[in-house]
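Practice problem 4.
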């Protein structure tokens, strides 16, 4: 006669964590692929034979225009509509600092020019453009 489980025996349910780990790893890979495109450092700067030599004293407000028209002011994302306000916030207590603009090399100049005009409309003059020295071959 087969033995039946007694009613006093408890059955311990177990949680299968394998699907959870799979989902977490897939999400991690997705974020690792997407994260670089969200950062302002992902901008490829235009190159030139003779960029103006100027030492970086760290006393500047940095505006970045990304490939899709995304804008960052000192590393904080903003929109074209909020650019003047973001510039004023970034300049609080730093009135004598320069404004430098980094535009992606794949952008049309009109996109970068629009950002320059918006910066100047916010009351900042003399916006400097950043470029990299072309590699010599």
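Answer key:
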């Amino acid at each position: 006669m087969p033995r039946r489980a007694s009613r006093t025996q408890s059955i311990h349910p177990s949680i299968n964590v394998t699907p959870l780990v799979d989902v977490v790893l897939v999400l991690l890979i997705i974020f690792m692929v997407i994260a670089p495109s969200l950062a302002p450092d992902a901008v490829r700067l235009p190159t030139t034979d003779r960029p103006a030599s100027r030492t970086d004293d760290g006393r500047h407000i940095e505006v970045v225009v990304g490939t899709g028209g995304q804008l960052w002011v000192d590393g904080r994302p903003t929109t074209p509509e909020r650019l003047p306000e973001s510039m004023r916030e970034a300049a609080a207590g730093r009135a004598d600092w320069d404004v430098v603009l980094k535009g992606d090399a794949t952008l049309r100049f009109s996109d970068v020019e629009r950002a320059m005009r918006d910066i100047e409309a916010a009351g900042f003059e003399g916006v400097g453009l950043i470029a990299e020295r072309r590699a010599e071959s």
